[in-house]
Amino acid sequence: MPTAPRPRPDPEALLKRLEWTVLRRLDGLLHGDYRTLLRGFGLDLADLREYQYHDDVRHIDWNVTARLQTPYVREFHEEREVTAWFLLDLSPSVDFGSVAKKRSVSEEFVAVLARMMTRHGNRVGALFYGDHLDTVIPARGGRRHVLELLYRLQARPAMKPSGATDLRDFLGSAFQAIKRRSLVFVVSDFISTPGWERPLAQLAERHEVLAVRLYDPLEMDIPDVGMLLIEDAETGEQLFVDTGDAGFRKRFADIAARREEELRAAFRQAGVDALELVTGDDLVESLMRFTELRRMRTRRNAGGMPRHLRRAA
Fold first, then answer.
1. Bridge partners, 213 (sequence order)
2. Pairing of strands 208-215, 227-231
3. Residues 119-139 as b or e (16 or more Cβ within 10 Å = b)
4. Contact partners, residue 45, CB within 8 Å, separation at least 6
5. Which DSSP letter does residue 159 get?
6. Which of 154, 139, 193 is nearest to 171 (CA)?
7. Alpha helix locations (H) across 159-225?
8. DSSP characters for 94-141?
9. pLDDT of residue 86
10. What is the CA 174 to chain-centroid distance, rounded?
11. How do residues 90-116 score in pLDDT, each as one tens digit?
């Protein structure tokens, strides 16, 4: 259930600020070629050929490989026009933040990527999730459409705690809603009931998917500030804790570290890359760091056929 309305939306001011402070910097760093940031995304199947040492193993066609007993990869070419979808988790937990709210980080990411895509002739759309998929903004192009998307996002009131988020339902609904192969950004803190991993993998089988994971430093490490009332943003449950207790802080950090390992394992299992956006971090630096990590991994993959394929050969 929504709470009181947020401050008056001003998408024009947000977009203008980001065009000057973020997009101009990205243009300089990417030498005007936005595709560098999204290398490997937004592709269409062109042909099949035998696996070569430098190929991305995610493009192996396992059905053809099993039938011919030789590794084959799907060869892609870039589409002239890419359709991108933003799957936006707007459940109560994204309104948390110690430096900035996770939701504000989400809005800035959407504004930058949507404008970057549309000014090169591509189309963007969005799906909003509160406690279910409740809003679909059709994919269109142009700056005016980006402003409309941002207005709808800014005007949406924060949600009251109403129970645990179920991303499995959201991702399953998105799979049904987006029929044509697209570039899909799943923007969420991934604080959810279990079971979303398989729907994410299913989504990635049809589309090029990037998980955009939002988090706040306080979700990883709680400082010593004495007695503190904490609240579960999803359920509204409240609890007094003694943050001065070193044992409590260690247990908190251990649980957070365990969740980090489980999240990364889930993304790997789904075959999906993850861009991590931390409240308070510089968006340009986060995007460029992600781009460099993808480039380094591609170079590592170029070193030879993966071990499990060598064993099968």
1. 188, 276
2. unpaired
3. eeebbbbbbbbbbebeeebeb
4. 74, 75, 76
5. B
6. 193
7. 167-177, 197-206
8. GG--SSS-HHHHHHHHHHHHHHHHHTTT-EEEEEEESSSEEEEEEEE-
9. 98
10. 14
11. 999 999 988 899 999 999 999 999 999
